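Supplementary notes for students who missed Thursday's class. We covered one full example, reproduced here. Read the sequence, then the structure, then the short commentary at the end.
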Amino acid sequence: MEILINAMDPREVEPWQPPESTSSPSHLQGRGHFSLLGYVRRKPSRADAEPTLSKSCTDKLAVKQFTSVVAFPADCFVQRTDNAYLKNLITYSDQYDQVGFERALGPRGRLANISGDGHFFGIEELPQGSPRFLFEKPTNIVGTASPQKSKAANTSTMWVASPNPSGNAVHEVLVNGVKQGYKQWDHRQSKASVVSRRHLIHLARSICTDMSGGDTSDLSLGYRLNEIAATISGVFNQDQYSKMKASHLRYEAIELKARVKRSLGSWQQNSGDSEWPCD
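Structure (token representation):
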């Protein structure tokens, strides 16, 4: 928030008066009421964007310091060792504010009461004169006669390269979450992207099948791979995605994430998109 305030015209930085009808900070928009610090915020968006409960990148990074970058369904196969956590966050020096960083992400800020459970990352500032990110938002120079203005696009795109390391072909392109070549209302399973949750579940099931194909022993664990595969398969044999995520194998991760959210406060659960069959 300090960086946002410093980039604004001095005439625009007067704190907003919170509306009396707002009983919880969770109702705030991403950049609304910037004078209220330390609250969970929704992802910043255009004024004409549909309401969302998707959290800001800062809040998501705060949680990742406890849950690691290994998420479901990969966490059923990969152990959360120290290597699964971010070590440093690289940023430009003019995009780093020590006070704001410590408050939002540091062990002595809003996460102080559960700091013992976290793997806190540091900040690595790029040297002065480092090349700028090609698609970064232009910085407005306050006081100039005609400051450069920019507007966020309302279209999201994703380009997925071919899995063949020797080729450079495009595997698929997503525009606003829809794979090109399909209509928005098309419900065929072939419409699912390779990065969709449904496709990842199918991939997890195929891994379990490959693991159970033989009786090779994993000496480091003392169990046979097919026995491990049978345990993990129990997760992905559920008929609903929400049941898979709530598996007993993920109990510790689920409880830890819940504690982090309670510590952050005003975290509204973004639910309702996991109650779908995965056959």
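Commentary. The first helix runs from residue 2 to 6. DSSP finds seven helices and seven strands in the chain. If anything here is unclear, bring it to office hours.
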